[in-house]
Amino acid sequence: MGGAFYPQFPITRHSYMLASHIFATELQGILMKYFLCALLMVSASVAIADDFDAVEAKLKTAMASDIRTDAEKDRDRNRRPVATLKFFGLRDDMKIVELLPGGGWYTKLLAPVVKDNGEFYAALGTGRISESLADKPGFEAMHIVGEDSKVYRKEGARSYTLETTGLGVTDADMVLTFRNYHNFDAEGRAAMNKAAFEALKSGGVYAVVDHTRRHMEQDNNENRRRIDPVLAIHEIEAAGFVFTDFSDLHLRLDDELRYEVGRKTVTGNTDRWTLKFTKP
């Protein structure tokens, strides 16, 4: 026996037994620590599952709502909203911000979940949901923020850029955006990440999903609506976030990453990265 953790002993039967006793005692302590850690992890997993039960029930009610079109419901199997939002850690008492909600596919699920116990905010490109949802039952408390922000294309540009002075929210629990990151140039992505960072409280989650582009592949006519996940991680970390976790929920091995996401061979079945970041 010897080294950093054990003293040197003369090689006698007594010293061997003493060293063996020390080793056994320390081993028991290590095993006990591992056991307690495992027990705490299991307990935490059970607690997390229990916490999500209320969210899942509300999500499934929202998914069945008549406010959703048949086309929107048809996408549930592919987009897997329950599993996706469970991964991100959504709870029904959170203050959440959805960036670039588009036609409101996720808005129609998120807003009802937090309606009673939390708060829902939408920012950037909110015109369609403002017109279609603001006066609908269950969406009266929906907040539209960051309305002075500008999302636009510079002359001759393929991608959008973003100018914003902030979202007017500083203590959100979660900021989410789905399949939007690819729409922006580097300047616009940096502005969006900065706005998300400033909108979150410490410990808040930035949840981002988008179509996968091959690593370091240059722009071409087929990958305009895809983006390299490694690039996204680098940029979002540069905004101050900590990369916390990823999920393969939307991994699609049969998407060769060769074709535009709207092509018949891949539409509705694109490989999408699903990344979770935390504000320190």
Comma- or semicolon-separated keywords:
8 helices, alpha/beta, disordered N terminus, single chain, Rossmann fold, 280 residues
What would you say this structure looks like, in words?
The protein has 280 residues and is of the alpha/beta class. The chain folds into 2 domains: 1-64, no CATH class; 69-278, 3-Layer(aba) Sandwich (Rossmann fold). The chain is built from 8 helices and 9 strands. It has a 7-stranded mixed sheet with strand order 3-2-1-6-7-9-8. Helix 1 packs across helix 5 (107-114). The longest helix is centred in the N-terminal third of the chain and has 51 residues, at 13-63. The radius of gyration is 24 Å and the shape is globular. Mean pLDDT is 88; it is low at 1-24 and 42-49.
SSE blueprint and pairings:
Blueprint: H1 13-63, H2 70-74, H3 76-79, H4 81-88, E1 95-99, H5 107-114, E2 119-123, H6 127-132, E3 143-145, E4 150-153, E5 160-163, E6 172-178, H7 186-199, E7 200-211, H8 229-238, E8 242-247, E9 272-278
Helix pairs in contact: 1-5
Short recap of the structure:
Helices cover 38% and strands 19% of the residues.
Mind summarizing the main beta sheet? 7 strands, mixed
CATH superfamily of the largest domain: Vaccinia Virus protein VP39
Cα separation of the termini: 43 Å
Low-pLDDT stretches: 1-24, 42-49
Strand order of the largest sheet: 3-2-1-6-7-9-8
**From the 3D coordinates, which CATH architecture of the largest domain would you assign?**
3-Layer(aba) Sandwich
Task: Quickly give the structural class.
Answer: alpha/beta
Question: What's the overall average pLDDT, rounded?
Answer: 88
Helix content, binned percent: 25-40%
**Radius of gyration, in angstroms, nearest whole number:** 24 Å
Overall shape? globular
Topology order in helix (H) and strand (E) letters: HHHHEHEHEEEEHEHEE
Query: What's the total count of β strands?
Result: 9
Number of domains: 2
**Helix segment count?**
8
CATH class of the largest domain: Alpha Beta
Tell me what portion of residues adopts beta-strand conformation: 15-25%
CATH fold-level name of the largest domain: Rossmann fold
